[in-house]
């Protein structure tokens, strides 16, 4: 079991854009984060990236002012969990909601207008971001405790 917390909850109305922090949002079973353009059926219903990955990305880069939670287009920014090392099938509990890790990393969409890769030539999401499906819905908000169960613990 691994513990962490929610650093931010982020949504956007359009795909291909950074997301804006919101005080709270609802995870909808088999769909994603309510009000977010990326929500829908499939294995990439919710995206997650850690504060630690964001801070590591900012090292040795110029003009990083304002590069914070949501700017990498992640729905949930976490703290205290090395997300990209979680095995597929891990369960992430946030309040009443249950997520299941369905994909580690992604193909970069820099050629389609990823704001971060366009500016810095690289983005943290393709290697350190993860995706999950919503197995059970519920509210998620900044400061919520996160508990992760690895597949062998389920």
Question: Please, could you describe this protein's structure?
Answer:
- This protein has one domain (2-153): Beta Barrel (M1 Pyruvate Kinase, Domain 3), CATH 2.40.33.20.
- It is built from three helices and eleven strands; from the N terminus they run E-E-E-E-E-H-E-E-E-H-H-E-E-E.
- The chain has helices spanning 51-58, 115-120, 125-128; strands at residues 2-11, 20-22, 24-28, 32-33, 46-50, 76-79, 91-94, 97-104, 130-136, 138-141, 145-149.
- It has a seven-stranded mixed beta barrel. Strands 4-3-10 form a three-stranded antiparallel sheet, with no helix packed on it.
- The radius of gyration is 14 Å and the shape is globular.
- The model has no long low-confidence stretch (mean pLDDT 93).
Kindly report the name of the CATH homologous superfamily. PK beta-barrel domain-like
List low-confidence stretches.
none
User: What portion of residues belong to β-strands?
Assistant: 35-45%
Structural class, by secondary structure, is mainly beta
How many domains in all? 1
- Give the strand order of the largest sheet, numbering strands 1, 2, ... along the chain: 1-6-5-9-8-7-11
**What is the global morphology?**
globular
Helix content: 10-25%
Major sheet attributes: 7 strands, mixed, barrel
**Might you state the CATH topology name?**
M1 Pyruvate Kinase, Domain 3
Summarize model confidence as the mean pLDDT. 93
Overall strand count? 11
Number of helices: 3
- CATH top level assignment: Mainly Beta
How do the helices and strands follow one another from N- to C-terminus? EEEEEHEEEHHEEE
Please name the CATH architecture.
Beta Barrel
Distance between the termini: 10 Å
